[in-house]
Amino acid sequence: MTIVAIAALLLVVSLGACLAPRTFAHRLTARRLEDLTGIASGLLLASALIVVVPEGFHTAAKAAEAGDDAFAYPPAVLGATVLAGFLAMLLLEGFGVAHAVHEEHHDHSAGHGHDHVHHPTSSGVLAVGLSAHAMADGVAIGAAAASGDTALTMLVALGVLVHRVPAALSLGLFSMHESESRIGELTGLTLFAVATPATLLASFLVLDGADDRLIALILLFAAGAFVYVATVDTLPAIHNPQTGRRSVRNVALSAGLFTIAILVLQGIEVL
Length: 271
Fold this sequence. Notes:
By secondary structure, this protein is an all-alpha fold. It has helices at residues 3-19, 21-24, 30-63, 75-94, 123-146, 150-178, 182-207, 212-239, 244-267, and strands spanning 105-107, 115-117. A two-stranded antiparallel sheet has the order 1-2. α8 runs antiparallel to α9. The protein is globular.
């Protein structure tokens, strides 16, 4: 699958999931969104730790082949880059660029007939926040594609794609009830849907043929961002006594099955 096809698929899935609540809002209960988020977060977490981090170190090792060191950078620098990706997402969240609709579930049976998830200050703020994080996803896929590793590109794109669905559903559901105008709602949803594909194509054009040293750092930074996103998406549900066990189960099962699949595929040399 070409990089353009991946971008197009991300756009279609993101926009479709954003608009789905208009038709299927009665089915998007808080429990279903939590389950879907947990499964997607487990996949993203496993993708970050068993695919992107190893590939980042591998790329750094390739860049050092001509030298005497095992890696192009000291291992501590590579680890610090992962931490920097995590902290960058944390800082965005701390400054109000929210990544997700954090769960405060309210029964709106009188008004909407289903559970509702809150609460950034507006759908516009949420759309901008999600779009900023979505741009980081695009850079990650673009860097993977620029590395020339097709399998890596597909795996990173898969992790982003699966995780995009619950985020888009939550944004669409929130915007449907909180936006002051239909135009404003569609603008925010479109911004979110376009952010990853546009950044993916732009980053690939910039990084294609770039030095492996740079690509290694970008991959590791993206891995740290993925770990943050997967963590922050599931912690509210995990800390809730009513949903904690189910959420942990969903994350662990998803991450475990994805890890097993990767190990099997590597064992038979498909990856």
